[in-house]
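Supplementary Note 3. Input sequence used for the single-chain structure prediction.
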Amino acid sequence: MSDEYLGEEARAQTPRDVRAERALLGCCLRSAQAIAECTEIVRPQDFYRPAYGRIYQAILACEEAGEAADPVTIYAKLRALGLAEDIAPSEIEQLAGDALRDSAAGDYARIVAELARKRRLAGVATELRDAALDPTRAADDVVARGEGALAEEASQHAGSTAVGIGEVVQHAMDRADAAERRGGGLSGLLSGFLDLDRLLGGFETGSLVVVGARPSMGKTAFLLGIAQANAERATPVHLFSLEMSGAEIGERLLSMASGVSQDARRRGSLTSGDWERLIPAQEGLCSLSLTIDDRSELTLSQLRLGLKAAQRRHGLGLVLVDYLQLVAPLVVSERREVAIREAAEGLKAIAKDFGVVVVAAAQLNRSPEARRDARPQLSDLRESGGIEQAADVVLALYRDEVYDRNTTNRGVAEVLVLKNRSGPTGTVTLQWDAACTRFRDLSLDATRATAITLMRAP
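The predicted structure, written as discrete structure tokens, is reproduced below.
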């Protein structure tokens, strides 16, 4: 943002150093090495004097075209680009003659870039002040605008992220060594289910995991199982529950941890044994680093703000979103598929920027119900293109009893690994405990025992 937005008093105090800008340009006019060094640090719009920014733009244009950057060629390039207004050839020659030390070009560039950054921040602050004083603007809108502007500034300031092949290969070797030292165990956060963890090897930091299912399949229960398993291992967990209230989540977690059915608690028909299980379950849950945000409408900017606050208070390792299609778009008029794609891409960006794992539930469309085999496929994700592309892992939940009341597989659930960017896909079988709305590990022997019991049941 230019300082033209600022008032007269603020403009007089605008951070700037015209001498550093002149020294930078002089170095670039005399040394190709200086140009290469400055390109990584300064942009044409970073110059306080617009004419100097145009001269720098012409220098970069000559460099890109493989032409020498001297006073003659630069002025010719300015004219060719229509940027020569108010710039005389003698001024460019003077810049080249006034250069101090070509080896200090990087130092001059950092001064120019730092002051440009402070000018942009001052402009953002002024804009936010005016927006906050506008009675037609909601406070959340102002906060979201400020958070977005600051995040954009932070990303621009990050500079080049390019690394040499040696560094990335060494990183791969370090991971292989770490895997050998831990005996092939998990390399990331766990799902809480043994067979699924064996298949995936854990959820890697910076990854987006999508859990898709039709209604009543247990998406929320599955996410809560992941949350509980990691929180019990001292990983700070933050849950955005866009569909269920915090009280409902608390009831779910209490039943999951205690093994006492939700129906018994609601009816007031608890036994003394139930109370004996509920009290320690409550104490255990209260000790976990698990926070719940149950606001029903949240934009990506508001999600980020909430996570920054959570990270400051108690750290952050795992983020859960229930569910993805309920993340509110910043622009309400956007087409649904565009909004969902941006939500998925935004959650992936959050995973990378915060260095966490993001697990998001997602609603499947009705396609499974139209097939003879109702097991989900990747294409069943609503607005699946954007979700599928952004996700590192896509899991889908399936329970045969939802479609066939007479099935012999009651109480058995399947977790289908439909996409795994870092490894194999496959299917894992779990036990579904409907009374306590929870998934549990189910060995092959347990599966057979459960099936026999169900076959004998009336």
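The chain is about 50% helix and 10% strand. Residues 444-458 have pLDDT under 50 and may be disordered.
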